[in-house]
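User: Predict the complex.
Assistant: Input components as received:
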Amino acid sequence: MESYILPDRLCLKNARLIDPALNLDQVGDLLLERGIITSVGSVSASGNTLSWNLNGAIICPGFFDLHVHLREPGNEVAETIRSGQESAAAGGFTAVAAMPNTTPPLDQAGVVRWVIEQASFFPVSVYPVAAITRGRKGEELTEMVELRQSGAIAFSDDGSWVLSAEVMRRALEYSLLVDAPIISHAEEPTLSKGGQMHEGEMSTRLGLPGLPRISEDVATLRDLMLAEYTGGRLHLAHVSTSGALAALEAAQARGVKVSGEATPHHLVLTDGAVVGYDTSTKMKPPLREAEDASSLWKAIKSGVIAAIATDHAPHTSEDKEVPYDEASFGALGLETAVALLWDHGVGKGLLDPFEMVRRFCHGPRAIVGLPIPALKEGAPVELTVFHPDEEWQVDKTRFYSKSVNSPFVGWKLTGRPWGILKGQRWAGRVEPKF
Amino acid sequence: MDHERKNRPLTSRHLLGLEGLAAEEIKTILDASEAMKEILDRPIKKVPTLRGVTVVNLFFEASTRTRISFELAEKRLSADLVNFTKIGSSVSKGETLLDTARNIEAMRVEVVVIRHQSPGAPGFLADRLHSVVINAGDGAHEHPTQALLDMLTLRQKFGDLKGLRVAILGDISHSRVAMSNVYGLKAMGAEVMLCGPPTLMPRNIDALGVKVSYKVDEAIAWADALNVLRLQLERQQSALLPSLREYALTFGITLQRLGKAKRTPVILHPGPINRGVEIESAVADSDASVILDQVTNGVAVRMAVLVLLSAPEVLM
Ligand SMILES: [Zn+2]
C-alpha cells in the first residue's frame, strides 16, 4: 500500500461527520488545507479546491489501537512495522501502540528509537510500549526514564505476567517517575500452564487443556491491589472475564488509578468458536463464554473499559497450520475491528456511534496521555474514514497484514473501513477520488 | 482414488468421533460388527471385502493394542496396509502433520487410521485429504472405536443399551475413552455416571447430561456396568493425585468393595490394566469381567467401521 499526498486544498464532501467530544454528528463537508482542518460543515468550494465525494462515509477523529504486535525486529516473516502500519491504515487506525515482545525486546532506548525511526515513512504513527523488565524476564526493571524520553508511551511485559509481586510493586512505584502506565497481561501462569483454550464445557468437549478464568482473575486482583498500594497507574490489557471486570470496576470506584481495554474478538466471539479446532481462534486470554462477552459489552458502554484494542498478533502459517495444541497464541485484529464494532456493537444497539468513537479514539489516548484529534477548525488532520453501510466479506487473500490468522475470515460485515487521513496524506484500502 | 459414495450407511465420510452420531448410525455399526464377529469365529478368518483398498495406520503415539487391533481388522478384510509409527519414521524427525498429510495425499491411499496426541488431529487430516479418516484416539478428545467396542460388549451382555446404567470410573479429565462412551451411550439411551477424584473430573462435565460422583461405592451400587479406566501412572507427578497408593485405596475396584453391593456390575476395562491400581487382579479375572470379550469385539468393530466407510461395494 502506498500513501497518497493530498492536494493543498481538499474538500471532503457528503460525509457523516462524527466527533463525540464536540457533540457533532451531522452530514456535511470538511475542508483540509495542508494538513489542517480549516472548515467543518458546509464548505463552498472555490475554484482551486479539489473535492472528493464520500457518499455518506463517516469521518471521525483518528482511531488509536493501544495493543498491537508488529513482530519487527525479529519475526519479519509474520509482520513488519510497515506491513503492520498498512494493516492499521486499511483498518482505519491512524496510530498504534507496539508491544515490546520482539526479538530483541523493546527494553533499551536504542531499540525504541529504531522502531520510531522505521515507522516514520508511513502515515500511521507507531508508539512503542517498552518492556517493564529487562529481556521481559520479570526480574530487573528497565531504564524507564530513558525509555520514556526515547518515546515509549507505556511499559508492559505483555505475553507474560510479571510473576514476582515484588518486581511488579517496584515497577508501579518507579513508573510514578515517568508518568506512564504499567500494562499488565494478567495471567497467573501456574493456573494456566499447558492450557489451550478457555476452561469450561467446550474445553471438556474438545479434549483441550483449559486456561481457567481464575488465572486471569487472580492475576488481575493482585495487580489491582499493588496499584492501590503504590499509587502507580495500571492498565489491564485484554480484559476477558466477568470476574476481572468486576474487580476493575470496584477498584475504579475506590479511586485506584486503573484502566482497561477489551478486544473485538472477546466481544464478538465465545469459546464455541473453537469447535472445529480453527487455530485462529487460539489466543491469550482465550475466547470466554457468552456471559463474559455480555459483561464486556456493558463495560465498554459504561466506560469501565475505556479502550477497544485489537491485540493484533500476526503468526505465520507454519505457526498456525498445525494441530490446535501446537499452534501459537494470537489473532489478527487491525483490519476487522472497526467493522466488527460497527456491525455487532452499534448495529445491534449495544453501543451508540459516539461511544464507539470514544473507545477507539479518546479512551486509549487518555490512558497514555496522547493529544486527542478533533473535527474542528484549526485542528491537525488525523481522521478515520469508514462507510457505515457498505457490506463486505473478510477475505484472507486481501489482508494487508503479512499473516492471515483471523478468526473472522469469511464473515460478512456491514461497515467497511476505507482508510485514514493524516497530515497531508491518505492511506487505506480505498483509493481516494479527487 | 476418490469414490463418490451413494447410499452411505453413515452420514459422515470419516469417523472422527461419536459426538453427534445418531442412534441409528451407531446401531448400524454395532450390527455390522456382529456380522464381522461371525467371520472371526470361522476357521478361515479372512474375507476379500477390502481387496484393493490401502489403509495407512498412522500412530504418532505408542499404542500397541489399538494398532494391533486395527492391523488385524485390516488383514482379515484383505486390505493392503502400511504402518507409520512415530519411532524411526519421518514424523519423529520434525515433519509436521501438514507435511504428513500432503505426503499421504500424494500416495492416494483410501483410508487413514490416525492416533495422535493432539485433540482434533484426525479432523485436521480429514480437512486436507481425500482419504477416509478414522480416529484411533486424539488426545483427550475422542476414541470412537473403543467406545463402540465397549457398547458392543454391553449390548451382547444386556441385549439393549436403552436404560442401562453405566458408570465410568477413573481419570475422566484426560480420557478420550470416557468422552466417546458418554456421547455413544447417551445417544443409545443409556444413563451414564462419571466417578473419580475431583482433580481428574473435567470442568462443566455435567453439561453433557451425565451424573457425577466422587464416591466409588455409590457408583458400584448404582451401575449395571462399570467401565474402569486405566490410570496414567504419571498423574501423581502433577498435583492431581497424592499417590497411586491412595488412589488404589480410594478408587481401586476390589472384590471386597464389589461385595458390599447388592449385585455385582459387569466390569469393563479398555486396557492395558494396571493391576492393583485401578483394579485388582481378582476382579479383572472374575466372572463379572468382560475384558477379553472387549478385545475380540475390538477387532470386529474396527472391521465394521472399515467396511462401512470404505468397502468398494458400498462405494458404488
Ligand atoms: Zn497480552
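The CA atoms of residues 365 and 372 of chain A lie 7 Å apart.
Let me know if you want any component modeled separately.
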